[in-house]
Amino acid sequence: MPEKMEIDGVEVTFSEGETVLEVAQRHEKDIPTLCYDPRLEPFGGCRLCIVELEGARNPVASCTTKAAPGMVVRTSTDTIEAYRKTLLEMVIGENREVDVHPLRGYASGELMSLRDKYEIEDTGITGAKSGTSKTDDNPFILRDYDLCISCYRCVRVCAEEEGDHAINVMNRGFQTQITTEFDGLLKDSACTFCGQCIQTCPTGALADKKALRSVDEVTDATLNKTRTICPYCGVGCSVDVLTNNEKIVGIHPAMDGPANQGALCVKGQFAYDFVQHPDRLKTPLIRGEDGELHEATWEDALDKAAEGFRKVHAEHGRHSIYGIASGRAPSEAAYLMQKFIRVGFGTNYIDNCSRA
Amino acid sequence: MSNPLVDMQKPDVIFCIGTNMTECHPVAATGLKKAIARGAKLIVADPRRIGLAEMSHLYLPLRVGSDTALLLGMAHVIAREGLIDEEFIENRTTGFDDFFEHISQWTPEWAESISGVPAKDIETAAMWYGSSDKAAIYYTLGITEHICGVENVQSLCNLALMTGNVGREGTGINPMRGQNNIQGAGDSGALPNNYPGFQSVTDPKHQEKFKAAYGKEIDLEKGITKVTALELCGDSIHAMLIDGENTLLSDPDREHCEHALRSLKHLVVIDIFLTETAELADVVLPATAWGETDGVCTNTERRVQRMRAAVPPPGEAKPDWWIICQIAKRLGFRGFDYDAPKPIFNELCHLSPIYAGLDWERIEKSEYQWPVPHKAHPGTPRLHEDTFVNGKGIFSNVHYRDPAETISNDFPVWLTTGRRLQSYHTRTQTGRAQGIDYLLPEESLEVNPADLEKWELTDGEWCKMSSARGSINIKVKATNRSPRGTVFASFSFADVPVNLLTGSGYDPVTHTAELKVCPVKLEPL
Do A114 and A246 fall into the same domain? Predict the structure, then answer.
């Protein structure tokens, strides 16, 4: 039996266990957040999601407040919005920069977007900047902690989603620093370079070093995303391939991918550039009289491919020809491989690479 | 997998055997880690102290190739302790009385004598698995790549059937598929025993159906497997069409394999790189790669999903389907007039009962897990919920068999093989991805530190590793991941072709190679 509460003067229903933020988001309330990632346990760190709760002395963080019957909540009063703006100014004021490149990571523009939404131009806050960026020679994860706002999303995603507990927090307050055990390199920690920390970071403090190789070529206007499935194991993680002028420049995990819900591993996240590697075969090859493979036209290569099968068929019969389909190519390829053998030669001399 | 990936977070007891999931299926492993964080118990059976073993509550370090013995021992304890699900056995299975009789002889003490796992740990594993409300089994090639792969799988089925751990949330028998579309390749009928949709080629009903659909008489008997075909190269097999497989590096007994492919009169390879296999071909045809190809793939939980092209292919590379059609048309084969992948997939759906409710448009959002028998069907995340396809679940009275080769004075060390997190298969892809070398620059042989002295090896130095089939040189890495007397290497690196050594035997039913067991000897270089 769904319970009822009131949000911004409208009676709404909720189910047990839902937070005020979740109920409000379901009803399309635009509540700002920074430390919130819907996959993670509520944290209540950034306080941007505060709402007025009738009967409560102070505003409450809606992400950590469970919805209760009869609650009366206001999500966007002048007072609340003023608080939010001040909180944002404090966060922005101690950061080195807020404008970050979209290639840094999936969520890297969150702080930037909120600054624009709240029209913060000059915070008026001067003084020390927090964070100390870390030199780490790994090729994948940039640790640019000058941009860190201590939302702990990276720490929590590593623990709760990836289950690796590779990173944690050192010090507190202004000195807060995200780091690994003994403050070392990621390579020497439990990190598996899955990249989930990069993709949940709302400021780009943790960033995709590999994607940033293309930073000079890519703009918001030229960056495209294509939804597909990872080319590696059989889990079938959904990914968005980031492309720029016909070049693959990075990968984002699909947060709504049914098999992965935002997770990837080091291969799916970072091992995509084989596709546009110079070693790719670009033309057909035919073995010549000299015993070497030589570039050829499609016409000649296909003729030779067909002719060879025709000859062997004529000489040795239809049970002399065998087909091996790929476990990496799409199903249409496997389907046509078996059809080629069955329709062409009337045999079941077809297999795929699953036996070894 | 009988159950969907989301179910991985839900069991009370998880039994992983022959799966190095944190390295080979890392994203699936995150589900298990969540289950453990929630309080689930993890039992891991593996010869190597892998990452999963470190996370486990009970680790069963079995000798390579002794899985059937271990599982028989567990079945014995479950029966002895009365942990069977009588209602499930009564309603859903057949053959339990014989099986009950059969397992009475396979005590945990006997299982210890074969597997090396202490009897008391076998008992604990059986008690945990048998007494839990929701227990799930996960396995990979550590179960199937043995001469007794079929018995291993049957042994796992026995455990699930006798405890009723099938057809419910958080239970099931869940093999993890290793390639992005290896499930789809089987679904599509690229098998010597099945037409598309796993319709047996020996069933007259299916024979009629495909004769009508394809307008061609097709052999009424099964074809031969790839393994047999490679055996027959030069004798009765004289031409091959290989699409996207680096057979030479991925298959066992490389010398045999190379000899086989070289003895063909005609070899055509479709691939994206000039692989070691393509280098042997008479004609090499350049295919479009992932990221350049529109098509469909099916994942390990039977979810049918769209792959989409994001960038144009290099040079003149063409989609696999186009290439196959062009060869077929030149040979005068009928039914290859396609101009896009969509009609090909729709034809597959039309001919496959498990895909009957699907088409190119319906899979747009990855919503369906097969079987989807008709258009109004929501798909089947969980198999065997009310019935088994073949009626009743069948208990198998399996027997333990030794691996094809066992250690001897000449070859006193067990070699087992597999993958690593950072590399994939024969590295045609990961070997060409920048940065991967930072994490994994080279292959090495994992040797227990206590074994170094005995074999006169030095950590970080090279050694010569030989089997009955050949020798390779490989760098030694001392690690407690390997137990005493067993070493491990991946088959990924072309300069350390581990599959020169493997290939001692094959499962007689599936023809899957025993890649997980290979007696070797080690000598310093």
Answer: yes
